[in-house]
Amino acid sequence: MRMRRVVTGVAAVLLLAGCSESADADGGAGTARPTAGQTPERTAEEVTEAIFGAAGAAEPIAEAEGEILDNGSGRTPARITVEAVTAGPESTLLRFTLYATSGEESVSLQAFNALTPLTADIRDVKIGDPASGTTYAPYLGYETAEEKDEASFCLCSTHPKTIDTDGVHLYATYPALDPSAETATVYVPGFPELEDVPVTRTGEQGGK
N- or C-end of the chain: fewer Cβ atoms within 10 A? Predict the structure, then answer.
């Protein structure tokens, strides 16, 4: 089932505990509001390393084959594996790995970011919550005193310039899923929808 609403959280810090949510007019999932006056204290590379650690040993819980845009405006065969969808009381973390099917391949800036490719991230990777009927985009934030259209950053991995058969670990952080959600749908541009991906719960929030 395809979700109908897309929600983009807005965050000013990498620690999502500082964000609060307010309900939409239709009573749907909230949109996170930024904590004033704070900017990221870690680079995307440091965050990725902290998140993944020994991710190479994790068993995939979902996988798919597809094609991604390369730097020559063609399409390159690729594969993804999802290692975890971890849902907490205030945020949801998606961890996945992107592989080339043979050799080393270049990846277009627009492969996972069609509208603002120069921000060099993977903000077009989305996650669907079947329990609430909502599709979420990753949290976005903005540097202080900068134009929002030009200075946004994503609580997600930086764009991978190349991929190979060893894989590149990637992540994205989203608003909290409905407390009753036991599975999620993962949307990665160029790949089939990954439905019924199991959700792991952390913190005080739990499913039925």
Answer: C
